[in-house]
Amino acid sequence: MTPDEIASLLKDRNIIANRQFFIVGAKLLGVSRKLQAGKYSFSGNMSNYSVLEKLFEGDIITTKVTIPEGLTAARIAAILKTSIGVDSSRFVHLVNNPELCDSLVIKANTLEGYLYPNTYRLYEDISAEKVISYLVQHFKKEFNDSLIYKAQKMNMTVHEIVTLASIVQGEAMLEKEQPIIAALYLNRLAKGMRLQADPTIQYIIDDGPRRLLERDLEIDSPYNTYLYRGLPPGPVNNPGISSILSVLYPAEVNYLYMVANGDGTHTFSESLNDHIKAKRKFDQYRRKINRQG
């Protein structure tokens, strides 16, 4: 909007008393072309100077938006649409645009994994491009040079670290178990074993998250770590910093197997034999609970 149009809008809303005084004041202060767009809240009998100051500084109405750890880009898009009106379809499209990855200097074909989970103050009607850039910049701030150096010492790329961190994020219910689970997966990678990580299956099913079925484990996808060795092509959610750090600084354990105990914890084992025993024990416990129910 031009300064004249802004003055007319403010006059129509009874925010200023005189259009001409406002326009002249903007010129004298040298801010005529520096008034920022957005939604503003004005109260009381504000002077022209106070109104101009607010518009010049961009004191826009913002909304607190919390993006939890471990959500996919699609679920983040839904939160942003509900809270501040971001076009969710465009958001997901842009996340999967390799050209946007290049422009944001992310060495990947998708920004899944790089949308940093946190609580933000965002203004309504922000474009999908801007909010994506904002989240990615926060990721790059957290994944700083010292963490990049640590990844290099592990002979892993940032993309590989984030990919494994997303699996740990999806698997660990308790933060204290994250370094143990990270170590377990790193041990399996070192031995050339399949990761057999459920979060990678949840990522490729259309109706997840839900209890996985045997047929789900047979889906032919490079993300299916039950079929294919090594890491999947990319992250399966957007992990928090604790999951990332757990991969960079894993626990010193030799575990290769784990069984969920149903209460958020896991039983870890070094041998297949011990793993089978732990699984059998949990199956017996689950059957007992089902009978009681």
Explain this structure to me?
The chain folds into three domains: 3-57, no CATH class; 62-142, Dna Ligase, domain 1 (2-Layer Sandwich), CATH 3.30.1490; 154-255, no CATH class. The protein is mainly alpha-helical and 293 residues long. The chain has 13 helices and four strands.
List the helices and strands and how they pair.
Layout: H1 3-12, H2 19-29, H3 48-57, E1 62-66, H4 73-84, H5 88-95, H6 98-103, E2 119-123, H7 128-142, H8 145-153, H9 158-171, H10 178-190, H11 198-204, H12 241-248, E3 257-260, E4 266-269, H13 272-292
Antiparallel strand pairs: 1-2, 3-4
Helix pairs in contact: 1-2, 4-5, 9-10, 9-12, 10-12
Q: Name the beta content range.
A: 5-15%
The level of helicity is 40-55%
Largest beta sheet, briefly? 2 strands, antiparallel
Give the N-to-C terminal Cα separation.
Answer: 65 Å
Arithmetic mean of pLDDT: 94
What are the secondary-structure elements, in order, as H or E? HHHEHHHEHHHHHHEEH
Structural domain tally:
3
Strand order of the largest sheet: 1-2
The oligomerization state is single chain
- Unreliable segments (pLDDT under 50, ≥5 consecutive)? none
